[in-house]
Design goal:
The strands form 4 sheets. Strands 2-9-8-7-6 form a 5-stranded mixed β-sheet, sandwiched between helices. The protein has a 4-stranded antiparallel β-sheet with strand order 10-11-14-13. By secondary structure, the chain is an alpha/beta fold. The longest helix has 23 residues.
Length: 386
């Protein structure tokens, strides 16, 4: 059987994956439903007790009543948007795929940040698209990750059709400040390309909600978000695309989005009807998680502070922390030994396209007792292995 070349040709488990599977102290957790958080269970369950779930009334962009609720929620987060500029999808992954279909032909290229979350390149490959990475560099003077705009401009000179921006980025947690947002908008206009801004981690800034990187009266911009992070309910499959830009361009864009989404109609009636009540839980859940992230980061900082060869990088936002090791360190060998000999599961930087060796990625979402246990094992392992 001939399978598509868009899929990996070898799907067998790698040695590092096998080692990580065996370790039981997990500092890679990304699933909030396994993080011992306090959910408003009664409200979530009763949100689905709705007789309207028995009615099929499809709308390609998603039910207007639900889009109105999402628009209202976004307004409370400092993201004003009219509901007729919103399109609902089953996930942010689907939202990416829809936008790629909207903007690109097979073989086109997209500008992607690196380091960053590895899912989006897989989505591009499944759409028969290419990508070229632009760099996110760590500024040691200001202790923060920042876009390397010369690198980004190089991808545009090579013909990239759109720029993917993740703010806060995953896993580095860097955010796009107003100055960088203006630079991004200017470049997008100069090269006549769209911006695709993934803001799913925006509620989890160190100081609260991270401001949007979308610029008023800017280029065509798609901002992605959804229930997965805003309510910590990844199993409740609802996400949204917010379209920004000139009125004429957004109207034309929404017509095409509606045509594309009408071919899928992937968002179910139960989640559309439940969304208003689910979003009522968002603010309390976000506060709870921010408190957890700050506490766990403090535990990690305390555990690593006396290890001379280790630096815990500054955190702006997101669910992860980055540990910098000597560049001579072999990440794969180290992570494998930590799993096999110290029963601790962390992720190597190369999983996220870090340019150099010597990075570990640690989740801050885990239950605090698990974090304390994990940091103790990590501390012991790093002292003995480095």
């Amino acid at each position: 059987m001939q399978f598509s070349s868009r899929l990996p040709q070898d799907l067998s488990a790698t040695p590092i994956a096998a080692a990580l599977d065996k370790a039981t102290i997990d500092l890679t957790l990304a699933n909030p439903t396994e993080a011992d958080l306090n959910y408003e269970a009664t409200k979530i369950i009763t949100a689905f007790s709705n007789e309207d779930n028995l009615i099929y009334d499809p709308h390609a962009l998603g039910a207007k009543t639900t889009r109105d609720v999402v628009a209202k929620y976004l307004g409370t987060m400092g993201r004003r948007i009219a509901s007729d500029r919103l399109a609902l999808t089953a996930s942010t992954s689907e939202a990416y795929s829809i936008i790629f279909k909207l903007l690109c032909n097979p073989g086109d290229s997209i500008a992607m940040p690196a380091p960053s979350y590895p899912l989006v390149p897989h989505l591009l490959e499944l759409e028969a698209l290419n990508y070229e990475n632009y760099k996110i560099d760590y500024d040691t003077t200001n202790n923060r990750w920042q876009i390397n705009f010369a690198s980004l401009k190089n991808t545009l000179n090579h013909g990239a059709r759109a720029i993917v921006v993740i703010s806060p980025n995953n896993p580095t947690g860097n955010t796009i400040d107003h100055e960088q947002a203006l630079q991004l908008a200017a470049l997008a206009k100069q090269y006549n390309v769209a911006l695709i801004i993934d803001e799913v981690f925006a509620p989890y800034g160190v100081d609260g909600v991270v401001p949007s990187a979308a610029i008023a009266n800017g280029p065509l911009t798609f901002v992605l978000d959804g229930l997965s992070k805003s309510t910590a309910l990844p199993q409740m499959k609802l996400a949204w695309i917010a379209a920004h830009g000139s009125d004429a361009l957004v109207i034309e864009t929404m017509l095409r989005l509606e045509w594309l989404l009408d071919a899928y109609l992937s968002v179910s009636a139960p989640i559309l009807n439940a969304a208003p009540k689910l979003l009522e839980t968002a603010i309390a859940m976000q506060h709870q998680i921010r408190t957890r992230l700050q506490y766990n980061y403090a535990i990690l900082a305390l555990g690593l502070k006396d290890i001379a060869k280790v630096q815990l990088l500054a955190r702006e936002a997101g669910w992860y922390a980055i540990i910098k090791l000597p560049q001579s360190c072999n990440e794969e060998a180290l992570v494998t030994k930590l799993a096999n000999e110290y029963n601790i599961k962390v992720q190597p930087g190369y999983f996220f396209d870090f340019a150099d060796e010597g990075y570990l990625v640690v989740s801050l979402l885990v239950e605090p007792k698990q974090m304390q246990q994990g940091v103790a094992a990590l501390q012991q392992g790093l002292v003995q292995l480095l």
